[in-house]
Amino acid sequence: MTTEHDDLGTSRRLTRADYARAEQYLPWNVSHLLLNVEVKPHWIEGSDRFWYRRASREGTEFILVDPENGTLGPAFDHARLAAGLSEATGIPHVHNQLPIDDLSFPDGNVLEFTLGGHRWTCDLTTYRCTRGEPATAAPKDEVRSPDGAWAAFLRDGDLYVRRTDDGTEIRLTDDAEPDYDYATLPGSSLSAVTDKLVGRPIPPAVAWSPDSKRLLTYRLDQRQVRTLHLLQSVPPPGSSRPVAHEYRYPLPGDEHVPVGELIIFDLEEKKRTPLAVEPINVGPRTSLFEQRVAWWSESGTHVYVVHASRDQREVSLYVVDPNSGEARVLVQERGSTTVWPGHPGPTLTTVRDVGDDERVIWFSFRSGWGHLYLYDLASGEERCQITSGPWTVRDIVRIDAENGWIYFMGSGREPGRDPYYRHLYRCRLDGRDLTLLTPEDAEHDVCFSPSGAYFVDTYSRIDQPPITVLRTCDGELVHTLAEADITGLLERGWRLPERFCVKARDGITDIYGSIIRPSHFDPNQRYPVLDAIYPGPQIIRTPKAFPTAANGFWQDQALAELGFIVVTIDGMGTPYRSKKFLDVASGANFGEAGGLTDHVVALKQLAARDPSLDLERVGIYGHSGGGYASTRAMLLFPDFYKVAVASAGNHDQLGYNASWGERWIGLVEGDRYATQDNIKLAHRLQGKLLLIHGEMDDNVHPSLTLRLVDALIAAEKDFDLLIIPFTNHSYFDARQGLAALETHISQSHPYFIRKRWDYFVRHLLGMEPPTYAIRPPAPPA
Predict the structure, then answer these.
(1) Could you give the CA distance from residue 762 to residue 563 in angstroms, rounded to a whole number?
(2) Residue 547 neighbours by CB distance under 10 Å
(3) How far apart are alpha carbons 464 and 458 in whole angstroms?
(4) Backbone phi and psi for residue 218, each to the nearest 5 degrees, phi listed first
């Protein structure tokens, strides 16, 4: 580390060179050094053949794989294609930098692709290239039917479909009214105000039947949902007046939340059929169909709906006759905490119909661990428990009803391994013949071929770059497709992060995390420690796969480069372990914030092992729920945590979205919410606290930070505050427009990053930061 000195030789200031080194590790500055970290197979229609890009330091190569014939090699002669394109376009093209996409292979001698907004055809015998029609893509505000013949779209809140061949429109509804319309997302969606400001196209919330003849959707009722307001303090051009933005947003305890009345439209019969299911709560994330809370059976003869009470203490699986709308409950569960049939996440992947119109697979924590159960569709009786033991199923990946197999990701089953690592397994639908298909001790991500005969498997750890392979459906290795190349990072001096396991507060339970050190780490020195926290309960903070450029890990690494050791910890009260582990921070214990006590205990154990961790200088930072947790750490453990930067914190769950607080804490009854409120603990602040919030945060309202500010002022506490104008929850500035939003990296606002760096440098390192401007990500092309 380079520092400037005063006359006594004491280090007083970091230099611009120190900040420049840290800036090298921001996500947009490492992406070009992460080669083959992500390998995406593009399946060729009608077969299990696929192509993918393989990167090297020299450029990119297109590879074609034919699993049936066992072949793997260049998809074409790259040099000849570059020459053919140069001749056809009059623009020089280089063989290892071909700007083509959307490859298809109509036959062995023809290649089709997209270049410069047009479709092109290349004869692979002569390499003569011909430009065709402009490349077209389905509008982003439409949803195409499976056969491509229809497109569903919205107009003034009503639902329409149009034929894609001649543009003929059919209006399905004509009675939409404000806040009581069709196939829309609620006003409390995570970026509802931002989406409107930039004109983001939002597709209708619909699910087409497999035969493309019917449409499942809902009518969204939020007429009585109460509103929030955001004040845009920077006026639009030509005005001097701030602008108020109103949006529907339910809070815990409110009488009304957004609900959807499920409906099926039959295009041939011109029939509208309401489903005999109670209106379903529509949360702030994505549509019910993207969440897979309602879906069609493979045959189209049934519709399935997972219906939960507001607090998710009761969940039912409905089976619906799409012709009559009649519904019956197939499975129902109740509990004292959430009984959602899957792990927290944007998509429900653990409830599936088998595909034979006879059996359904249900997920439950009823045994204390997350497992699969087979139910009879006709009788509703449980046929068998498919999986069992002290481990958990994470996702159902594929069901092969014809051969009687289910393929799923599971974690925690392999002894001696990190219990969060996902592995692919298969077993019979009655639970027999359970087999591990991905044996490597790592996190696995798989993608099956269209027939299900093969799958692509990328496996890695935070300390092991990815390897991507092709396997048969029984796990046999076919090809190694790519190995990640991180040579460029290592040449910078980057150190791989370290994994660790310590004991939780009970002295028994294992908890896991990672240690991120600066590239210039000296084991003979002592470093201040930064606890990078997100408390869940819906996700963990420690990455398990090797970090991609989109991963928040690189923000942590950049901070470490300034002279810190950054630690991530997943304490009790976070997901993917047992139900008991998750429930530690539920209900009245929500204020435990993902195991804050475990964080303190874990850091003490790590420091006992490694004297380079200086526990006299411990800071903490986090965003959103992490903003809540980092502030709470300062208030609950003021003698341990000395400095915090808390951004966009939901400091009182009574002021955050109803679907969040009521799921994890419960309905507003008695004193359940009494102890989770940071505002009530403001008088306990001792250290240095920087609060940051985006003025246009339509997810966590800025009032939650300002209410904490009010309490800190009342308690005569010193703190620092930064409100960033015009920015939303992820610090995106809507003035940058739609194209910038679509490529935005969360928390990439340069001023936000620098202020967080400066705060820890000044108050934890005890040095003055340099005058420095971080360069933002390059604008989209």
Answers:
(1) 12
(2) 21
(3) 12
(4) -150, 160
Amino acid making up residue 526: R
CB distance 153 to 204 below 8 Å: yes
Say if residues 573 and 587 touch (Cβ distance below 8 Å): no
The C-alpha angle with vertex 317 and arms to 314 and 319, in degrees rounded to 5, equals: 150
How far apart CA 116 and CA 361 sit, in angstroms, is 46
Integer Cα distance of 75 and 485 in angstroms? 21
Q: What is the H or E stretch that residue 76 is in?
A: none
User: Residues 651-672: pLDDT tens digits?
Assistant: 999 999 999 999 999 999 999 9
Tokens of 272: 């509208």
Give the C-alpha separation, 337 to 350, whole Å: 19
Under 8 Å between Cβ of 326 and 276: yes
Radius of gyration of the chain (CA): 27
SS3 helix, strand, coil % of the chain, rounded to 5? 20, 35, 50
Q: Is residue 248 packed enough to be buried (19+ CB in 10 Å), middle (13-18) or exposed (0-12)? A: buried
- Across 453-465, b (16+ Cβ under 10 Å) vs e yields ebbbbbbbbbebb
* Residues 516, 611: Cα–Cα separation, whole Å: 15
Contact present, 153 and 184 (Cβ < 8 Å): no
Which neighbouring-strand residues pair with 568? 514
DSSP 341: S
User: Is 353 in contact with 292 (CB distance < 8 Å)?
Assistant: no
Q: How many CA atoms lie within 13 A of 524 on its CB side?
A: 0
CB atoms within 10 A of CB 695: 17
CA separation for the pair 658, 226 (Å, rounded): 11
Q: What is the pLDDT of residues 378-435, one digit of tens each?
A: 999 999 999 999 999 999 999 999 999 999 999 999 999 999 999 999 999 999 999 9
Provide the 8-state DSSP code for 605: H
Sheet holding 158-163, edge to edge: 143-144, 150-155, 158-163, 169-171
pLDDT digits (tens, 9 = 90+) for 629-645: 999 999 999 999 999 99
Q: What mean pLDDT comes out for the span 23-40?
A: 95
Among 461, 443, 572, CA closest to 506: 572
Three-state DSSP class for residue 286 = coil
